[in-house]
Amino acid sequence: MKNYGILNYDKVSVDNFTSEKGLKIRRKLNPVLRKIFKIATKGDIIVDNYPKLEDGKPYIFVATHNFVEDTISTLATIDRNAYLLFGTTNQLKVNPEMYAAWANGFIYVDRKDEQNRKDALLKMKKVLKSGSSVLIFPEGGFNNTENLLCQRLFASPYILSKATGCEVVPIAPYNEFGKKEIYMNVGEPINLGAYEDKNESLTYLRDELATLLYENLENHAPHIKRSDLGDNPRLDYMEERKNEYLKTRWTEDVWNEELTIYRDHVEREFDSIDEDLKNVHIDKNNAYVMAPVLSRIQTKEKYDFKSYMHENWNKNVR
C-alpha cells in the first residue's frame, strides 16, 4: 500500500510545506497527539528527567538515535508540538504511520541531495520563527557503533540556534533490545548559538547527549560479564542491530540512505587511501608493513555494517 495522500510530500517547497494555520492547529492538537503517540508506542515510556521549559517558547529538540521507537516515544514525551525532521524515503512512501507524522508536522529531507538539505534548514527556521519547535536526530542514521555513546553530529542544531536564537534541548531515549521499557532522559536547554566555533558547539552538544545516554545505561542497562559474550560478539551485535531495523517493514534495499552518518573530509580521505592500499602488490620488501595494514582493512570490511545489511535484510517485498 502506498501513502497516496502524502506521496509527494518530498517535493513541497519551503513556502508550501506548511502554513501559519497548520502550525497553529498542530500546537492546539499537540496534547491529544501526545496521548495518541504514547498509546501507539509498543513500549512503556518512563521519563526520568524533564527540564522546566518556558510556556509558548520554541526549542530545538535534539535526540540520540538508537532504536525503532525512539522517534514516537520522543514525540510523546516532548511537552509541546515539534515538527519532526525526517529522512527515510521508503517509509514516507509505504508506512501508514507517516500519516501520524503528518498530523504532528514533519519536514522531509533527502539526505543525498544538497539543495534539499538546505531547503530543510529553511523549513525548520520557518517553524521556529512561527513559535513552534522542531525535533532533530543529528547523528543522521541509527548509532550502530559498539563503543560510541553518540556519533559525530550534523551541523543543523548549531545553524538553527545561531540563526533563530532558539535554545537546544538534548534528549537521550534508551531501550534495551527485547525489553518494553523506554527511558527518557532530557537535559537542560543549551544556548548553542552563543558559541562562535561550530565544531566546539557540536562537540559540546555531543558530550551532553552522550552523558544523558550514559546515565540511562548506568541506571537501566543490564550488567553482563565478558565471559557471557559469545565467540564473536561483534557479529552478534551486528545481528541484534539488524533485527532492530527489521522491526520496520522495508520494501526495498534502503541501507545506503538509512545508514548515513557524518563523515568529514579527513575520514573520507582515509577511506580512499584504504581502497588504494588494497591494490598494492606485496613482496618481500614491503610485507612487514603491508601485511598488518591489509589485515586491518580485511577486518574492517568483514564487520562493515552497511554491507551486512545489504546482504541480510528481509527481502520479502510486499
What does it look like?
The protein is an alpha/beta fold and 318 residues long. The protein is 46% helix and 11% strand. It contains twelve helices and seven strands. It has a seven-stranded mixed sheet with strand order 1-7-6-2-5-3-4, with helices on both faces. Helix 1 crosses helix 2 and helix 5 crosses helix 6. The termini are close together.
Tell me what portion of residues adopts beta-strand conformation. Answer: 5-15%
Q: Give me the secondary-structure category.
A: alpha/beta
Which parts are unreliable, with pLDDT below 50 for 5 consecutive residues or more?
none
* Computed CA radius of gyration, to the nearest angstrom: 21 Å
- Give a count of the beta strands, DSSP E runs of length 2 or more: 7
Total count of helical runs of at least 4 residues: 12
Main sheet strand line-up: 1-7-6-2-5-3-4
For the sheet with most strands, the description reads: 7 strands, mixed
Tell me roughly what share of residues is in helical segments. Answer: 40-55%
The average pLDDT value, as a whole number, equals 92
Question: Termini separation (Å)?
Answer: 9 Å
- The shape, in one word, is globular
Element-level helix/strand string? HEEHEHHEHEHEEHHHHHH
SSE layout and pairings?
Elements lengths: L19 H21 L3 E6 L10 E4 L6 H8 L4 E5 L2 H6 L3 H7 L1 E3 L5 H17 L2 E4 L19 H9 L3 E7 L6 E6 L11 H23 L12 H13 L9 H4 L6 H13 L9 H16 L2 H8 L6
Parallel strand pairs: 1-7, 2-5, 2-6, 3-4, 3-5
Antiparallel strand pairs: 6-7
